[in-house]
Amino acid sequence: MKNFLLLIASTALLSGCTWVQLTGEGENVSILTAAGVSNCERIGRATAKTLGSIVTVERGGQRLQTELLTLARNEAGRMGGNTVVPESLINNGQQDYGVYNCAR
Hints:
Strand 3 and strand 4 form a beta hairpin. The strands form two sheets. A four-stranded mixed β-sheet has the order 1-5-6-2, with helices on one face. It has three helices and six strands, in the order H-H-E-E-E-E-H-E-E. The chain is of the alpha+beta class. The protein has helices spanning 2-14, 24-27, 61-79; strands at 30-31, 41-49, 53-54, 57-58, 83-86, 94-101.
């Protein structure tokens, strides 16, 4: 029974369910490239981390990227920023982002 429940939970997680939700603060945060923030004020750095694998199965790159961007947007919103820029590659389910405040 325990193995059966683990199988069901793993299947649900791998089939497209995500447990990372965009907050109200995060909804107001844009994602740009480094070139797009040349006239913005850098206010800090956020590190987003999520699971890179579940039960030894690697997670899809697109799902992982989406979750990391959502976490970064949420954190930037809490910090008072309105823009994030990826500053590193994904490594073990973790990615660094610059947090900026850009005039809109």
